[in-house]
């Protein structure tokens, strides 16, 4: 469990999951999560995120490979692992006639050493909704109730499957704040999300899954750094791409032109931007709607998904 001075509370090695009918949803996935870290699993629809997380939660045995959570096999040693983990599933599935407070109390009855339900409801911003029936909650409020229930056992490891789906911007930011506070308090968080901004805001490290395999992994900065930055501008009517200095000299590694809009890709943003602007200045050319930006995680994600799809000949992703 110790590696390079870090305690790995989740260790996944060559994990495989095969569904009835022989479909291989997880095809040799390996990663580890350190104590007190937020780790995000990203991927397109059907990439295998939930299938992986369910194996970590001990809901099914793997078809191959190894999972350890807090040093135990979460399926075979469920009794040792379950009390120390909190799980927020994609669908909570509570009896909808119960109120928020009744739901939290009922759930607390199933958790050994549960925190006071009122305390966790306050943490997720539901203190004022305790008397409301679950069926009357908004989608975002249900997600917050799911999160409150996952926190009842004061878990060391928290599994959050798309925790902010359906939340408005403020609710999402509140959840981020709470996840950060939990992390700062030493909780290890494994998160799946479709919101790349969320992964960028929360994750210490992440892995991008594609068709059951890890296509990229590292810190958000590492995953992003491998992707080119972009410079976009509009050429004036009387100018053409050929009027620019040779693109190789500008340090451009790829380009597209659509009407008068030029998009340049570069791994040397400062050099390319400086040379381009120096040329424009000397030539007296105004580069309209100039936009210079480093690759975001979203661009990295789309680039990785495109590359992976090109290799496997599947779906295309727009830039
Ligand atoms: N019970 C099941 N039986 C057969 N195939 C399944 C089952 N559950 C999931 N799959 C398939 O396994 C693949 C991975 O699904 P999974 O739900 O793990 O993906 P995901 O990355 O979580 O997707 P999403 O982002 O849409 O939630 C998909 O092709 C899915 O259709």
Automatic annotation (TrEMBL):
SMART domains: AAA. One of its GO terms (molecular function) is ATP binding. Its main location: membrane. The keyword Coiled coil does not apply. Keywords: Antibiotic resistance, ATP-binding, Nucleotide-binding, Transport. Signal peptide: none annotated. It is a peripheral membrane protein. It is found in: Cell membrane. Residues 10-236 form the ABC transporter domain. This is ABC transporter ATP-binding protein. The lineage of its organism: Bacteria, Bacillati, Actinomycetota, Actinomycetes, Kitasatosporales.
């Amino acid at each position: 469990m110790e590696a390079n001075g870090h305690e790995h509370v989740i260790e996944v090695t060559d994990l495989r999951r095969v569904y009835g009918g022989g479909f291989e949803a997880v095809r040799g996935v390996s990663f580890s999560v350190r104590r007190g870290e937020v780790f995000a699993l990203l991927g397109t629809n059907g990439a295998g995120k939930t299938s992986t997380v369910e194996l970590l939660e001990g809901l099914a045995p793997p078809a191959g490979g190894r999972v350890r959570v807090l040093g135990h096999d979460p399926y075979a040693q469920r009794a040792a692992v379950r009390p120390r983990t909190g799980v927020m599933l994609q669908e909570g599935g509570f009896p909808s006639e119960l109120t928020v407070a009744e739901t939290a109390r009922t759930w607390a009855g199933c958790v050994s050493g549960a925190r006071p339900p009122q305390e966790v409801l306050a943490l997720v911003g539901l203190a004022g909704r305790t008397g409301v029936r679950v069926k009357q909650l908004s989608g975002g409020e249900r997600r917050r109730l799911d999160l409150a229930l996952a926190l009842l056992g004061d878990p060391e490891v928290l599994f959050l499957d798309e925790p902010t789906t359906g939340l408005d911007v403020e609710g999402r930011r509140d959840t981020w704040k709470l996840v950060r506070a939990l992390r700062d308090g030493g909780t290890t968080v494994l998160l799946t999300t479709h919101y790349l901004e969320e992964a960028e805001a929360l994750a210490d490290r992440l892995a991008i899954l594609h068709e059951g395999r890890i296509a990229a992994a590292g810190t958000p900065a590492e995953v992003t750094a491998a992707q080119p930055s972009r410079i976009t501008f509009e050429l004036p009517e009387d100018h053409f791409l050929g009027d620019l200095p040779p693109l190789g000299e500008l340090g451009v590694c790829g380009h597209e032109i659509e009407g008068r809009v030029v998009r340049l890709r570069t791994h040397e943003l400062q050099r390319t931007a400086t040379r381009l602007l120096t040329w424009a200045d000397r030539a007296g050319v105004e580069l309209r709607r100039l936009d210079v930006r480093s690759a975001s995680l979203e661009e990295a994600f789309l680039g990785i998904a495109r590359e992976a799809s090109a290799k496997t000949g599947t779906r295309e992703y727009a830039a």
